[in-house]
From TrEMBL:
Gene encoding the protein: msrA
Stated name of the protein: Peptide methionine sulfoxide reductase MsrA
Biological process, per Gene Ontology: cellular response to oxidative stress
Organism: Streptomyces sp. gb1(2016)
Gene3D superfamilies: Peptide methionine sulphoxide reductase MsrA
Region annotated Disordered, chain positions: 1-22, 214-236
Length: 236
C-alpha cells in the first residue's frame, strides 16, 4: 500500500519496535462473508494454515472464496513486534508480513489445494514486494503448523519453481518457516474482510499466470495428508 524509494530491509530484533503487551482493539466476533467466528478456539476437526502473499486485503478474499474454508482473518506474522499496528508494520520496523490465517475443513479442501491457491494468486519471485507494493511486509511466506505441512509446502515450492522457470520467471523467494514461535497478531477490525466491506477497494494481488498442476494428480499434492494440524487460537 505504501510505495517507498528506499531499499526494503528487515530489522534485527534489536532494531524492531517493541509494540505493546495487549492489543489496542477488539477483533470482530464473526466473518462478514462466512458468518463463522474469526478467532478460536475453533470446532474440532478443522485445521489452520497461514499464508503471506502481499497486501492481505486481496489475499484474504482469495481464500474465503475457496470451498471448504471455514473462516479467514488477516494479521501480522513473522516479525518481532508484539501487537503491532498497521502503521507500524508498514514502517518496516516490525519485521512482520501481512498474513492471512485460513481455517479449513480438510474433508472438503486439503492443505495442498490451499497451496495451489497461494502460489497462483501472487508472484512469489519478487522478494520484498508485490507489484507496486514495496516493503518487507509484502514478502511471500508460508508459516507451517506441522512437519507434514512443511513437507507439502516445500514440495509445492519445488514443483512451482519448475513451472515458473519454464515460463521465464526468476527464483522463488518465498519463506517457509514454522508457525511455532511466530505469533499471528490479528489486524485491526477495518482490515478484516476489507474487500467485502469495500467491494471497489484496493487489491494488489495478482498472479503470474503460471498454473500449478492439480494436487490430486501430483506427488507434491500427495505429500500432504489430512488430519494433521488442529486449528489453534488466533494468537498462537
Amino acid at each position: 500500500m505504501f510505495l517507498t524509494h528506499r531499499t526494503p530491509q528487515l530489522p534485527t530484533p534489536e532494531e524492531a519496535l517493541r509494540g505493546r503487551p495487549t492489543p489496542e482493539f477488539t477483533v470482530p466476533s464473526r466473518h462478514t462473508v462466512l458468518g463463522n467466528p474469526l478467532t478460536g478456539p475453533y470446532p474440532q476437526g478443522l485445521e489452520v494454515a497461514d499464508f503471506a502473499l502481499g497486501c492481505f486485503w486481496g489475499a484474504e478474499r482469495k481464500f474465503w472464496q475457496t470451498e471448504g474454508v471455514w473462516t479467514t482473518l488477516v494479521g501480522y506474522q513473522g516479525g518481532y513486534t508484539e501487537n503491532p499496528s498497521y502503521e507500524e508494520t508498514c514502517s518496516g520496523l516490525t519485521g512482520h508480513t501481512e498474513a492471512v490465517r485460513v481455517v479449513f475443513d480438510p474433508k472438503v479442501v486439503s492443505y495442498a489445494d490451499l497451496l495451489k491457491v497461494f502460489w497462483e494468486s501472487h508472484n512469489p519471485t519478487q522478494g520484498f514486494r508485490q507489484g507496486n507494493d514495496v516493503g518487507t511486509q509484502y514478502r511471500s511466506a508460508l508459516y507451517t503448523h506441522s512437519p507434514e505441512q512443511a513437507e507439502a509446502a516445500q514440495a509445492s515450492r519445488e514443483a512451482y519453481q519448475q513451472v515458473l522457470t519454464g515460463a521465464g520467471f526468476k527464483e522463488i523467494t518465498t519463506e517457509i518457516l514454522p508457525a511455532e514461535g511466530r505469533t499471528f497478531w490479528p489486524a485491526e477490525p477495518y482490515h478484516q474482510q476489507y474487500l467485502d466491506k469495500n467491494p471497489d477497494g484496493y487489491c494488489g494481488i495478482g498472479g503470474t499466470g503460471a498454473t500449478l498442476e492439480s494436487p490430486s494428480e501430483t506427488n507434491w499434492g500427495r505429500a500432504c495428508p489430512t488430519g494433521i494440524a488442529p486449528a489453534p487460537s488466533a494468537s498462537e
